[in-house]
Design goal:
With 210 residues, the chain is an all-alpha fold. It has helices at 20-32, 35-54, 61-70, 85-99, 104-116, 128-142, 153-159, 165-179, 184-191, 194-200, 202-208, and strands spanning 10-11, 14-15. It has eleven helices and two strands, in the order ββααααααααααα. The chain has a two-stranded antiparallel sheet with strand order 1-2. It starts with 9 loop residues before the first strand and ends with a helix.
């Protein structure tokens, strides 16, 4: 069984929200997510918070933390899913967070951000946290906006390294597409050309020089 590390107050200089629901989410993530998704999800929070701060955006750190840490849980249960993984994940997150005492409306905002992180053209009308999660996941998966986190990237990557993320994430997306070809995963894999994007990304270049 994986050891759950102490709940951090900051990661790479990015403050972590210290409420009970955020701590419960940290513990849940360590119990539930495979290592490649756990580190990806923590990085997504760091990138999204850093981008939000740099752009002067006002966002709810608790919402962003929960959405970041839980946004890919649907990829861990593809054989059991009855809907696209992001929709399943949004509902799992909503129910979990309400049980932890989060207000229904706030938990619903987390769920919306999770559902939309796979959608094209997320806008501020969808919520600031949804926009930031979308940008952060694009950054961590495909390297879009890589330079935006130059200031924190070394510290975050030291504690939450990429490892085999590219290979394992591509395989998970492929499993969903094989089962459910009408989801956003199919657009990402086939139309966007996810594998090519990842192979050409700054992450791949960085890995080849280390």
């Amino acid at each position: 069984m994986r050891t759950i590390p102490p709940f951090p107050t900051e990661i790479g200089g990015i403050a972590v929200p210290q409420d009970d629901a955020s701590e419960a989410t940290w513990r849940w993530a360590h119990r539930t997510l495979p290592a490649y998704l756990l580190t990806h999800s923590v990085r997504a929070f760091c990138w999204s918070a850093a981008i939000g701060a740099e752009d002067g955006l006002s966002f709810d750190a608790g919402i962003l933390w929960a959405a970041s840490l839980m946004h890919d849980v649907g990829l861990t249960r593809i054989p059991r899913n009855t809907r696209c993984f992001e929709v399943e994940g949004g509902e799992i997150a909503r129910r979990f967070l309400v049980r932890q005492g989060m207000a229904q409306a706030t938990a619903a905002t987390v769920a919306i951000a999770i559902v939309l992180h796979m959608a094209p053209n997320v806008t501020v009308d969808d919520g600031i946290e949804a926009v930031l999660l979308d940008r952060a996941t694009s950054l961590d998966v495909r390297g879009v906006g890589f330079e935006l986190v130059d200031g924190i990237r070394p510290r975050v990557m030291r504690d939450f390294p990429r490892g085999s993320f590219d290979r394992l994430f591509l395989a998970a997306i492929g499993r969903e597409v094989a089962k459910r070809s009408d989801c956003q995963s199919a657009r990402l894999l086939d139309t966007v050309g996810l594998a090519g994007w990842m192979a050409r990304s700054p992450w791949a270049s960085e890995a080849s020089t280390t």
